[in-house]
Amino acid sequence: MDQPKCCVNNCAIARLAETERNIVLGCDLLALKSIYATRRSFVRMVRDSFNIDEAHAARCMLVARRYGDRRDITNCVSWATLVELSAPETPDSVRRDIEQRVIDGERVSATDIYKARLQAA
User: Fold this and answer.
1) 30-38: long-range pairs with CB below 8 Å, 24+
2) pTM of the complete model
C-alpha cells in the first residue's frame, strides 16, 4: 500500500532537517576546532558536549566544508549521498559530474557515487 502524500512529504522534510542540522553542526565544529590545541582535546569536547562520536563529527565537518553554502545540492540529496560526495576518495571530476546531475534534477544516491568512483579508478 502506498503511503499518503503527506507522509512522504513529512519524510522529505525530516530528511532535509537532519541534513541541515548536520551541516550546522559541522560548521560549528569547524569553528570550535581552531581553538583546541590538540586533536585529543577537541575529540573529548565533541564527545562530552555534543554526545557524538569522532566519525560523525568528521563527516559533519567534511560535508559542511564542501557543501555548507550549496543549498542547490544539499536540499536535493540525502545525508548519505552528501557524505559520499564529500569523501576524499571521490575524484573532483566525479564530484563535478554528480553535482551537475543533481542540479539538472536527477535523483542521485550514495550508491551512484560509489559506482562512479569505481568507474573513474
Assistant:
1) 30/61, 30/64, 30/65, 33/61
2) 0.85
